[in-house]
Amino acid sequence: MVAGDKLYVATSDGKLQVIDSNSLTVTSTVNLPAPATEALWVTRDTLLVQADNKLFGFSMGEELTEKWSVSLTGGPIVVKPTVKGDSIFTSDLSGRILSIELENGNLTEMARLDVPLVLPLFTFGNEVLAATVDGSLYRLTNLFSP
């Protein structure tokens, strides 16, 4: 994952490394509890990493600092998180629609579709939609209304 002038890499031996893209030197290394299981995602100033049935949020300063971790009881996150306000919205393998606060990792199950998503949540006009692996399209706009 490239963000700014840094490359973020999860290695097969359970390390998370930051590489300076100008000098190609490793500037920071964090030991994860297990190898990362999915893609790395950057949302604002937080690096998201899945490992050991958890989602970790790391601050992306000079050093990677773990801000929070949350257990993924419904399986791994299957689609790239969508950022809205101070939270991310995504879905796990069980089809739960999740909201996770970027600052502290508080996780809220917003809905359950019982089928995994194939695309990140997206907007179409004024609607928030979710596309699932069985070809269904769900309208989730009411979940995001005040």
Q: Which regions are unreliable across 5 or more consecutive residues at pLDDT < 50? A: none
Shape: elongated
Q: Residue share in helices?
A: under 10%
* Arrangement of strands in the largest sheet: 1-2-3-4
Largest sheet, strands/sense/barrel: 4 strands, antiparallel
- Total of helices: 0
β-strand percent reads: over 45%
Number of strands: 15
Mind telling me the C-alpha Rg?
16 Å
Order of helices and strands: EEEEEEEEEEEEEEE
The overall average pLDDT, rounded, is 92
What gap, in angstroms, lies between the N and C termini? 34 Å
- What structural category characterises the helix and strand content? mainly beta
Q: Can you describe what's shown?
A:
The chain is mostly beta strands. 0% of the residues lie in helices and 51% in strands. The strands form four sheets. Strands 1-2-3-4 form a four-stranded antiparallel sheet, with no helix packed on it. Strands 5-6-7-8 form a four-stranded antiparallel sheet, with no helix packed on it. A hairpin with a 3-residue loop joins strand 7 and strand 8. The chain is elongated and about 45 Å long. The termini are far apart. 25% of the residues are buried.
